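Troubleshooting: if your tokenizer reports a length mismatch, compare against these two reference records.
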Amino acid sequence: MFVVVVVVVVVVIIVVVVVVVVIVVVVVVAVVVVVVVVVPSLLLTKLSSSSSSSFLLLLPPLFFFFFLLFSSSPPPPPSPPSPPPRRFLLFLLLLLSLYNSYYMDKGIANSVCKACEFGRYADSVRSSSCVNCVKGKHVATTKSTSSSDCKACPSGRFGDEKGLKLCKDCYVGRYMTRDFTGQTLNTDCTKCEQGRYENQVGQLDRCKYCPIGKFMPAGTQESTSLSSCQLCPSGKFQNMQKMTSCESCVKGKYQEPTTTGAVKSDDCLLCQAGYWSDESALSSKHDPRPNDPVNDNPACKACGGGTFPAGEGLIIKDDCGKCSAGLFSLGLVPPACNTKEECCKDCVKGTMKPKNLIF
């Protein structure tokens, strides 16, 4: 009988000990939950004046905590005091991460933490607003947690506002060299120089050239289209790009009035035999109104009476072929007459012509 009593007493003692241990464990868990989870959540609730949002924020860390607690293997034998368990530290990190990169909008009742929008970041917990990236920078993702997430505007773009998702392209008529980043104004983009244009945004390194056969008037800058480049007029040509003027056909040469945009000197033609010119940039084969005092169309000039065709591309009148004394001509040109013998005629009886007379 005595043995039975002893066994019963021992069992009761063991049960009591187990109950006490369980109660202690529950109390410890409750204290940890209150200190680590409930208190921060209540503080966040006070900041946002929202009880429902705190309850929603409380669920993820609670589930994670109990998962860590009850999924662990049986405890090892007692050992000397050691640093906090790794799982508990992981739980604390998770809890902190829930509040970082989010913010609580004070102006909205029953709100929840929101991810920072494009162009903004939150670098601390319990933020009530996100911070804009500064001018010259941007961030194209949400939930940014640091100012280092804001990247400098790349070359060819600029940021003239805070909180940009994407930087703005340099406007047409401008460009930016590749080593320039983080620019804040469109004026940081360089204007296209004379003889160049740019019809696309975000251009790098240089603007497009005016092509050969065209020019851009001097003083023209920030041109935005190819139409800013003008065709070389008749009597001129241009065989190089990015020019602000055209080259003139030399003396003794001309172009047809309909010829524009010439790209080489060979586009200038020699004044035909029986004509001459001491001017450059001629835009006509000959002047259809030689007696008109207003010469709107510079052209090769006829050698005139008393001469014959002596060659092409003459640049002074004295180079025109002259009929000998006693001979005259009407100043005809090919194909009416081609040689001295065909063009120069004998003076009739009773008339004369001095040597080298030209009229």
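Reference record two:
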Amino acid sequence: MLLALTLAAAAASASAAPRKCHYQRVGSSPITWRDSRLVIEGTINHEPVPMIVDTGATNIVLPGSLVTKLNLPIVERLKGESYGAGGVSKTGVASTSEMTIGGVTDYGRDMRVDLDSHMGMVLVGDDFLFQFDLEINGHELVFYKPTDCAETVLSYWDPLAPVATLEDMDKSDPWPIVEVHVNGKRLRALVDTGAPTTLIDLATARKLGVDPPARGVKPLKGGGVGTHDMEMYPAQVFDEFEIGGEKASHPPIAVADLFGNARKDMWFGWLRLHNAPDMVLGADFLRAHRVLFSPGQHRMYLSYVGGSLFNAPTSSDLPPAPPAPPGSATHVPNWGPTESVGGIARQIDIASLQAMGDGTVRFNSRVQLPSNASGRWVELPSPAIMDCTRRRRGTLMPNGMPSFSPATEPAPDLDEVCRLAGIPTTPGDRPDWRAAPDHRVIDAKSLKVRDGLLFFSVGTVGRAGNTWRADLDVVVDCAHRQRSGVAGEHYTLQPLVEGGEQARLAEAACGLAKLPMPPAPKVAPVDFAAAIAPDQAGDDNLSHDIDRATLAERDGLVHFRYATRLLADGSQAQEDQWIDAVADCGTQRRSDAGGAHVELRPVAAGTRGALQVARVCATASQARQR
């Protein structure tokens, strides 16, 4: 059954009667990330085929090997040319009886066949993707059909989501191009899910005062559709990037001559490429956001969901590859002096230090096991990272993305790593921790007011009551009761969930900074009598009370509220925090709703999350039967 979302539309004029926007979900497909590319599974002539979602491709393009495998009839051997980062590629045309993605089917379509660049998978281009509005939310691709929605906010997951202006998508060349600002200059950016990395065109970068060749930066080799390599200059630091109100300071973005190869190969390149975009927003940017393209409204809605905005490759004029794995025959470690970090003895492999070009340093390290466990040294499997400019420690996650937390000062190991790598840093001060609600602390020295917003660092009190651990940067709009976590300089303000931990933390910080904050709006009291029996599973003194009165089914999901209650002696509630959440009963996934964000994730069997999903889904099922 097709899912329909009904959203209230604004009146066309004061005299016109309000109309209802009907936003119909017409199909969806799960997505996976492979080598920084967004991959789905569709069918061609009823045969399952993996496909790359490529909003930078104007048409569907089939690899020649797939045409042979499926025995597709070739309509024309040499129909024309496709152009991309690798220049021009000769194309033919093959005929198909049907192609289906996520329940959306095209019949009797002729498709381009790439004859030159040896593609491995089908590229699903804009002629298929933008038949409808398109949402990409991290775990699925969704098609929507809007009716009477011209003035309606379509970001149903977050009515306050930032909006970027989307250019008119010409049917002959329907690229999704949005307006961004880099170093204060307006640029046209192609949103290209088929590009693993965000890139700024070399000519544009030079106009912005960034010229890698002039600075002696050596290029790397990249490519795309076409037969040539593309020269790419990695990790150039710009002053600021902004899209739809979201801002990032000092972002590292790679630079490339985006269409140089195509101009060389095409005698009419000056005509076809005169209106080429200034930059490409690649899959790294898309992976950090939930986006909804609405060509009819000329809008792209986006919400930051976490992770690095840009994953620029490292420069080849620095060490050309990440540090060799510990124990590698090609790497001879040079262990530095022993430092104590958090009470654990650690040594840094000085020979593995690698400056990444964005103010961070990666290196191998080893720790010493306690003496009662033989006292031997053990090399850590993943590189450690120091952020010299923002004084943060980090590690490399399994997905290749860095994860940081503020360094607890003083941090002599951070200072030594940055000194050895030749990156300037200023010595940090010990934080001035001030107690806050919910076992949190606020660094009073970190309180800074900028553009009417309050920025500060937060720590957590350990279980023993004597450990202070910095773990989060926060920004609060005290006047409007909004907050956001800060990733680098990137943040998206969301309304506070009143009565919850973050609201109490924001109130404490605004009080410390002596900034006025209006009182919280009245919230309907929770019906404790209707609460499902507390969940006391696990090895800590926490219970999860689910408020049965808040259970509601919307958009195929069960929405509910639960309390995390700290139990002093296993029975008496000492403190509670109410959290909004959603569950997908069909796929056994759940999510806490951070503000209005919902990112559903699978729950592991036997965990508190699985028990919670089982309870709310059973209760919702009983309610439907009544």
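Descriptive notes for reference record two:
- Residues 205 and 211 are 6 Å apart (CA to CA).
- The chain has a mean pLDDT of 74.
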